[in-house]
Amino acid sequence: MDELLLTLPIIQPEAAAPVAPAKPRKPDWLRVKLPVGPAYANVRRLVDEHKLHTICESGNCPNMGECWGAGTATFMILGNVCTRSCSFCAVATGRPTEYDLDEPRRVAEAIQLMGVKHAVITSVNRDELKDRGASVWYETVVQTKLLSPTTTIETLIPDVKANWEALETMIAGGQEVVSHNMETVGSLYRLVRPQAKYDRSLEQIRRTKQAGKRTKSGIMLGLGETKDEMYQAMDDLAANGLDILTLGQYLQPTKRHIEVAEFIHPDLFAHYREEGLKRGLKYVESGPLVRSSYHAERHVNVPI
């Protein structure tokens, strides 16, 4: 019996399955109201009638109800299919087919009809185009200014991949603010913006400033950045001539996109605002629901 017992296998208790870390729950301060009201409905109608794309819709912006309810919108030109595959963005990725040379006129007419006092214009990345879509950018700003000479304009332009001639054309139409979003800190670029380069985006901002423009950028928080990395990013932006910085909470648009690492408390957003101003930035818009075009009309008055 003793020998038999010695030959029996020793059965180990089953190891407990690893417990996945709980996903952070969306806090109350990120709740937004659904878009309602006649002003919102009017913007909705004009966007549909003129077959326009807005980043408000394509980017699932949480402020769409507030902004559209106030009769404003951020227009997205050059189609709604992007050549990039950033892990945070809700805009469709693929091979764009749309290239409408009449789009500048339609955007300008819609802005005039809406009576917009301050228009924000952005676009998808069009890396397949030799000029990155710069000629459409230029004409959109010029035609908007012709039809609505008192309307101020911010252009939120994409990464031109060091095509500096295209950049010069994009920013030459007479807009008051030129924005290019960094999106995140340098260490997270491969994860968040795999087809972009941190230093190249900084250079784009520096060249825009050297051209005499009012410069602006935005960073999303909650992707896993540290405080020291945020301080470094703000130092880098200030050193490259940035005037205006927006800081907001990253929100995962779909399950296919990168998950939220952390929901940042409003107190930390307030802290980053003070730190940005200390580091030489002229204006910092910082809060959980802040997006690039949030309160954009205020940024026109920032001194160059």
UniProtKB/TrEMBL annotation:
A GO cellular component entry from the record: cytoplasm
Subcellular location as annotated: Cytoplasm
The keyword Transmembrane is annotated on this UniProt entry: no
Binding residues for [4Fe-4S] cluster 2: C82, C86, C89
Gene3D superfamilies the record matches: Aldolase class I
Catalysed reactions, semicolon-separated: [[Fe-S] cluster scaffold protein carrying a second [4Fe-4S](2+) cluster] + N(6)-octanoyl-L-lysyl-[protein] + 2 oxidized [2Fe-2S]-[ferredoxin] + 2 S-adenosyl-L-methionine + 4 H(+) = [[Fe-S] cluster scaffold protein] + N(6)-[(R)-dihydrolipoyl]-L-lysyl-[protein] + 4 Fe(3+) + 2 hydrogen sulfide + 2 5'-deoxyadenosine + 2 L-methionine + 2 reduced [2Fe-2S]-[ferredoxin]
One term of GO molecular function: lipoate synthase activity
Cofactor needs: [4Fe-4S] cluster
Textual note on the cofactor: Binds 2 [4Fe-4S] clusters per subunit. One cluster is coordinated with 3 cysteines and an exchangeable S-adenosyl-L-methionine.
All copies of domain Radical SAM core, residue ranges: 68-282
Similarity annotation: Belongs to the radical SAM superfamily. Lipoyl synthase family.
Protein name per its UniProtKB record: Lipoyl synthase
Gene field: lipA
